[in-house]
Amino acid sequence: MLSRITSLVVSGVFVLTLGVITAAAFTKTVTIKVEGMKCPKCSASVSKALKATEGVEEAEVSSEKGVAVIKYDDQKLTETKLREVINSTGFKAVAEPGQ
Q1: Domains of the chain listed by start with CATH number
Q2: Which of 24, 78, 88, 89 is the most buried (most CB within 10 A)?
Q3: Chain centroid, CA 76 distance in Å
């Protein structure tokens, strides 16, 4: 009986650990340069649009720095889609060299 309980506990821990590792493997963070933001309301607009996008886990947008730092699930979204969302707000997501 003790052996069976131990086996179940070990199996449960293994499954939970595997789930956490798998979930973390799909999360990416990208920094995208955004042109045209002049004030906190501008960055709030971009941030709101990004956060409303399925797959975005976090979005920090700075009008002072002109960047958006986005943590997202790369199984649900691509960087191209994130740039489209930013562009849809009226601001311009600057393409990095090679894109």
Answers
A1: 27-93 (3.30.70.100)
A2: 89
A3: 10
What is the model's pTM?
Answer: 0.73
Sign of CA dihedral 35, 37, 43, 46: negative
Q: How far apart are the first and last CA of the chain?
A: 60
What angle, rounded to 10 degrees, do the helices at 40-51 and 79-88 form?
130
CA distance 75 to 45: 25
| C-alpha torsion 63→65→66→71, nearest 10 | -90
pLDDT, tens digit (0-9, with 9 covering 90-100), for 17-30: 556 555 555 899 99
Tell which residue, 75, 73, 72, 83, has the closest CA to residue 32: 83
